[in-house]
Write a structure and sequence with these properties.
Length: 298
């Protein structure tokens, strides 16, 4: 008997261990999916020639896990739209189905009316109802006398607390300048110090540039034609767009117009992806630096 009992306990322990291992494996799989599967995004920006500069139409969406989760947004200059999709099904439809199911079921009040039951609050006898009315009348007469004294007491205590502190002395004034600016002088000194930039500042800028390169869109295309009333400003804007060559990688065709009109017309499309693992690695590398860690703790 003892051997059979021990054998049963061991088999039950093995089943529990297997279940725990399966749960831990699923949890680890979900964490790895979230960290290493990137979020893919794409967007489109367009503007017509006749419309004003404020009426720029924007559209974009973010997908994760081959479209299992998708978030799309659009803006046409006046109105915006936002939608969430789960396995290709809009989330609004899922919520509507739940509402319909709950709407078909009768509420507690309707059930009680059908069965003829009364609410627990309404289960009072006439005797208790009469006692409640008497108590209310007594409170009215007693409250009308005690209101003046309570009010005067409040005014007196409020006047005394406003003029003097608990010990009888007037309260000290707070530092108004520090409250207005809210700048931590210790952090500002560390940020402007030479040791911080030698040990941590340059490293932060270096990793930030790498992160921005990873977050920038991988594919970008489009064309843009523009013109301004001042011809000199058109040349300056063209030179500025030429300086942004590393961002658009010469895949956007710019057509400056020196005719003296005032318009902007074009269409730009871009695609890219964001990996959450790279963001976590960037945060870990930055936090490991002692200078940056001291700056954040100060």
């Amino acid at each position: 008997m003892m051997a059979l009992l021990i054998k049963g306990l061991l088999s039950a322990a093995l089943v529990i261990v297997k279940i725990l291992c399966c749960l831990l494996g699923l949890l680890l799989l979900v964490i790895l999916l979230v960290i290493f599967i990137p979020l893919r995004y794409q967007g489109r920006l367009s503007k017509e020639r006749e419309k004003s500069l404020k009426e720029i139409s924007l559209a974009g969406d973010i997908r994760w896990l081959c479209g299992v989760l998708r978030v799309s947004a659009a803006y046409n200059g006046r109105e915006g739209a936002f939608s969430l999709y789960v396995m290709g099904i809009p989330a609004d439809k899922l919520f509507k189905r739940k509402k319909r199911r709950h709407a078909g079921r009768p509420d507690k009040r309707s059930r009680m009316k059908e069965t003829g039951q009364t609410a627990p609050e309404s289960r009072k006898t006439e005797r208790h109802a009469g006692e409640d009315e008497k108590d209310k009348k007594d409170k009215k007469y007693s409250g009308s006398r005690g209101r003046t004294s309570a009010r005067t007491g409040r005014v007196k205590s409020g006047h005394g607390s406003a003029s003097k502190g608990p010990s009888g002395h007037p309260p000290r004034r707070k530092n108004i300048r520090a409250g207005r600016t809210g700048v931590n002088k210790k952090k500002l000194r560390l940020l402007l110090s030479r040791d911080f930039w030698q040990n941590g500042g340059c490293l932060f800028v270096k990793h930030l540039v790498r992160l921005v390169r990873k977050l920038l869109p991988r594919k970008i295309s489009g064309e843009l034609s523009f013109s301004l009333e001042d011809v000199g400003q058109v040349g300056e804007l063209t030179a500025l767009l030429a300086m942004l060559l590393p961002l658009h990688k010469n895949r956007i065709a710019f057509h400056p117009d020196f005719g003296g009109e005032d318009y902007i017309e074009g269409k730009i499309e871009f695609k890219g992806h964001i990996c959450i693992g790279s963001l976590l690695w960037f945060a870990l590398r930055i936090y490991r630096n002692r200078a940056i860690r001291n700056f954040l703790r100060s």
